[in-house]
Design goal:
Radius of gyration: 20 Å
CATH topology of the largest domain: Rossmann fold
Number of strands: 12
Helix content: 40-55%
Bound molecules: nicotinamide-adenine-dinucleotide
Shape: globular
Distance between the termini: 26 Å
Structural class: alpha/beta
CATH class of the largest domain: Alpha Beta
CATH superfamily of the largest domain: NAD(P)-binding Rossmann-like Domain
Largest sheet: 7 strands, mixed
Strand order of the largest sheet: 9-8-7-6-10-11-12
Strand content: 15-25%
Order of helices and strands: HHEEEHEHEHHEHEEHEHEEHEHHHH
Number of helices: 14
Number of domains: 2
Length: 402
């Protein structure tokens, strides 16, 4: 699997110096280790861990820790690259990084998961204590895991998205969903000219990103008509009670058993006739095989990399705009920046201030993306890549790297 950036296509839109192209076309640093942990007389946990810094021209490598069975080095590289683009697009002083632990967290007890994370910190201690890499949650990890990392480093700014009582930021938990919904609301208005009130939305994935996106969409007046998770989904054309659904998922663990609608599969959800489709689960869910079935007027990417290039080409032919991940889900890293800054300065921020900052940054990036897309006659994704890469190139120049 190659780079996320198509340098040939991007090179037709902006000037990319050869040295910058070389630096951006592969990771700056990679660490691969086998984590092994004895858990008792017979118990043994072994998993591959990958840590990738894609580009640190703008600052420390920032990016989540993913725990997922079968996670690979290629996946980690791709996610780290997206983080370099995302932080540059949002104008943050961070670079792009990512960690993936190839293990299924649902098969670990809380005690075992804590032990795995402590061992991960033990191996990466120098990187974390020197602030070279600043983790946050991703698939399979959450605030408690970040608190465990903090408990090992004792450095508040070494990790973000900690629980608010442990140096975390009020609103960080909801911040990614906040930005996805902000991007969706802007896109409904500016791209479709559609009022938010009554706009129909379908949300794939009901974890951190999906459930908060659904809540903010619903608060803004949109009708969330469908939601799903790994086990399947639920559809109600009159709109789902998204808070009750989140509560149900917390208690029962699945979306599809929620009594407020008809059960549907994930493929059906992706093909629903809605105004906005919000893939908030994981990468590569909209593919060359199913993109033709999409009937949504708009796609807003809550997950990282949910649309394959083949799917994007099909959606573009159908006239369906795709608001890219590096813009739509940047709220998490924007809030993480505030948490990191507060940890260094001692400042405190309220939940409302966090949301205001996310809204403001996403609004500004959305305007810039739209303007660039119009000026250059390119897709929203290419426009956001163009802005981000120009920022990265300039940062490299500022540091005398190129
Ligand atoms: P999570 O683990 O909290 O939730 C993931 C949800 O997706 C769960 O409901 C799960 O059942 C569902 N899911 C997984 N595979 C699925 C599939 N094949 N089909 C349908 N549903 C599926 O994870 P999260 O933190 O919400 O992250 C979701 C996505 O958003 C990931 O791509 C992640 O990289 C990205 N992201 C997360 C954050 C963040 O702050 N958490 C920030 C930016 C991007």
């Amino acid at each position: 699997m190659g780079s996320v950036i198509d340098f040939e296509a991007l090179g037709r839109l902006i000037e990319i110096p050869e040295a910058a192209r070389r630096l951006l076309s592969g990771p700056e640093k990679e660490i691969h280790f086998a984590l092994s942990l004895k858990t008792g007389e017979r118990g043994l946990i072994v998993c591959d861990c990958y840590v990738v810094y894609h580009c640190t021209a703008r600052g420390p490598a920032k990016g989540g820790v993913r725990m997922s069975a079968g996670a690979t080095l290629d996946e980690t590289r791709r996610l780290a690259e997206l983080m370099s683009l995302k932080t540059a697009l949002a104008g943050l002083p961070f670079g792009g990084g990512k960690s993936c632990l190839s293990i299924d967290p649902s098969r670990l007890t809380r005690f075992e998961k804590t032990a795995v994370i402590k061992e991960y910190v033990h191996i990466l201690r120098l990187e974390l204590e020197h602030g070279n890499y600043v983790p946050a949650p991703d698939l399979g990890t959450g605030p408690t895991d970040m608190a465990v990392i903090f408990g090992e480093t004792h450095i508040p700014e070494s990790v973000t998205a900690k629980p608010p009582r442990v140096g975390g930021l009020p609103g960080r938990l909801e911040a990614t969903g906040r930005s996805v919904s902000k991007a969706a609301l802007l896109a409904l208005d500016r791209l479709l000219g559609k009022p938010v009130a009554g706009a129909r939305a379908a949300v794939q994935g009901y974890g951190n990103v999906g459930s908060h996106t659904a809540m903010f969409m619903s608060e803004a007046g949109a009708k969330v008509v469908a939601a799903s998770d790994l086990t399947g989904g639920i559809h109600n054309p009159r709109g789902l009670d998204v808070r009750a659904l989140a509560d149900h998922v917390r208690r029962k663990g699945t979306v599809s058993t929620f009594p407020g609608g008809e059960q549907i599969g994930n493929d059906e959800l992706l093909a629903l006739d809605v105004d906005v489709l919000l893939p908030c689960a994981r990468e590569d869910v909209l593919t060359g095989q199913n993109a033709r079935d999409v009937r949504a007027a708009l796609v807003v990417e809550g997950a990282n990399g949910p649309t394959t290039p083949e799917a994007e080409a099909i959606l573009s032919d159908k006239g369906v705009p795709v608001v890219p991940d590096i813009l739509a889900n940047a709220g998490g890293v924007i809030a993480s920046y505030v948490e990191w800054r507060n940890a260094k300065s001692g400042a405190l921020t309220t939940k409302e201030e966090t949301f205001e900052l996310v809204d403001e940054r996403i609004g500004k990036a959305f305007d810039e993306m739209l303007r660039t897309s119009g000026d250059k006659g390119c897709s929203l994704r290419m426009a956001s890549f163009a802005i981000a890469v120009e920022e990265l190139v300039q940062s490299m120049r500022d540091r005398e790297w190129i």
